[in-house]
Write a structure and sequence with these properties.
Helix content: 40-55%
CATH topology of the domain at 6-184: SMI1/KNR4-like
Strand content: 5-15%
CATH class of the domain at 6-184: Alpha Beta
Order of helices and strands: HHHEEEEEEHHHHHHHHHHHHHHHHHEE
Largest sheet: 4 strands, antiparallel
CATH architecture of the domain at 6-184: 3-Layer(aba) Sandwich
Number of helices: 20
Length: 467
């Protein structure tokens, strides 16, 4: 059965064939290989709708009937219709899809959940919407089936770490084809969060936008292109003069790829901007373009009040082999807690001065997760007597399974006689990973049997293993 959407669907199918022919890659594509499952018949679709009291958006309905029921799509691909109810919080309500959708559009592409989903008899925060695509972890792309935004695609974190964000497309087919367009020109990752349009369209929209949030959105979208033309580069450079911190940060993020020429010393100056977002973006751009200059900035910026920026600086110091004992001491004494932890983890435990700082921290730490991080870092100095002694002591004191699992793994490769007794006791630990590794460690700690010797008839000796 042909529909008013048939020409769009045929165009999509042609692009899918191109993606397969070119062996394109995108996040999650190994799950579907750019292939679709067989289409559904009109009767099957109609029966599914009637059972749930809802009518699917016409363009998606046509896709199911003329293209495929599931498979190829953004992230891990399109989910089949029979998985529509897996995210319901109160069990399968066959008519949850027909209830008014609570996801509302608020500012730009940012959304939210209307009211309290537990009040007024409403039981499901995502009622009236179907989880069509899994992005990974708690991220899903929903297709809205009811209400004023029917037919729109919206990104949702079901763990509520970020607010819903609408995709900048009018309907499902526009969304799907735009994904393929990005795949075919080599743009991978983050699809559906940026503003829609090709380079010239985005520049035009940027130049007519008055709202800084809107401007930032168009700049972010331009930053996803692997290269930019002259007009787009000029637009980005112009945005670097904006008084809005949000616009300035977005412009800086869009130059990180390297296609827009920016004076590195100008980027260095922006690393001291009053906005945390601007400082982060400026440092990231500088690190990508001028690593030596970024290293000089990182030495002081590592003590910034922003944890994320401090961690970026730690990584820069580590990558440039500059996270030595002197720098580490400075971070330990003056840095913020999260930055200090990152530095102690990434610093090289093969340097005795660094190792002393790490061992001191390990002796004082009470957080098992942090202790695990330190153990993993110190384990790189395999065989150092001070590390083995500290680990043997921690083996006796710790009750955390993950800490013990990492310690026993160390002793699977390093012999240290004082640890043997405790390793033997851990072979009956409640946690299976600790038991398994402790058993292997005990076997490694115990010396191999000594071969026996016997005299040959001619008086010479030869070795013979005990049988």
């Amino acid at each position: 059965m042909n529909s008013t959407h048939s020409h769009r669907i045929q165009r999509i199918l042609t692009k899918l064939r191109q993606a397969r022919k070119l062996a394109c890659k995108s996040f999650g594509s190994e799950e579907h290989g750019f292939k679709l499952a067989r289409p559904l018949s009109e009767d099957v679709i109609l029966a599914w709708e009637q059972a749930r009291g809802v009518v699917l958006p016409e363009d998606y309905r046509a896709f199911l009937r003329e293209a495929g029921a599931s498979g190829a799509g953004p992230y891990y691909g399109l989910r089949p219709l029979d998985r529509w109810g897996e995210l319901l919080s109160t069990g399968v309500d066959e008519h949850a899809l027909s209830h008014p959708c609570l996801i509302e559009l608020r500012s730009g592409l940012r959304g939210g959940i209307a009211g309290d989903a537990t009040d007024g008899g409403v039981r499901e925060p995502y009622q009236g919407a179907m989880p069509l695509i899994h992005m990974g972890c708690c991220g899903y792309v929903f297709l809205i089936l009811t209400g004023p935004h029917r037919g729109r695609m919206v990104n949702v974190d079901t763990d509520e770490q970020f607010a819903p964000q609408f995709a900048d497309y009018a309907d499902f087919l526009s969304y799907y084809e735009a994904w393929l367009d990005e795949v075919l020109i080599g743009i991978d990752g983050g699809f559906g969060f940026a503003r829609a349009g090709d380079e010239s369209q985005l520049v035009a929209r940027l130049q007519t936008a008055d709202d800084p949030i809107e401007q930032a959105g168009f700049l972010e979208a331009l930053g996803r292109f692997t290269s930019l033309g002259t007009e787009a580069q000029d637009a980005v450079l112009s945005a670097l003069e904006s008084p809005s911190a949000e616009v300035l940060a977005a412009a800086l993020r869009s130059v990180t790829g390297g296609t827009v020429a920016v004076d590195p010393h100008r980027l260095r100056g922006m690393c001291s901007h009053g906005s945390v977002a601007v400082r982060r973006a400026a440092f990231s751009a500088l690190a990508q373009r001028e690593p030596d200059l970024a290293l000089a900035v990182a030495r002081s910026l590592v003590l910034d009040s922003d944890d994320e920026l401090g961690r970026l600086c730690v990584h820069q110091l580590h990558d440039r082999s500059a996270l030595d004992a002197t720098m580490l001491q400075k971070i330990v004494e003056h840095g913020r807690s999260d930055v200090r932890r990152a530095a102690l983890y990434w610093a090289s435990a093969t340097d005795p001065a660094v190792r002393r700082l790490q061992l001191k921290e390990l002796s004082e730490v009470t957080d098992p997760h942090y202790a695990t991080v330190l153990v993993q870092s110190l384990a790189k100095a395999r065989g150092s007597d001070d590390v083995s002694a500290a680990f043997a002591e921690l083996l006796r004191e710790s009750h955390d399974a993950m800490v013990l699992a990492n310690l026993t793994q160390y002793f699977m490769q390093v012999r240290h006689e004082p640890a043997l007794e405790q390793l033997i006791s851990l072979t009956s630990h409640d946690h299976p990973l600790v038991r398994e590794r402790a058993t292997s460690a005990v076997a490694y700690q115990r010396p191999a049997p000594t071969p026996s010797r016997r005299r040959t008839r001619g008086g010479s000796r030869r070795w013979r293993r005990k049988r």
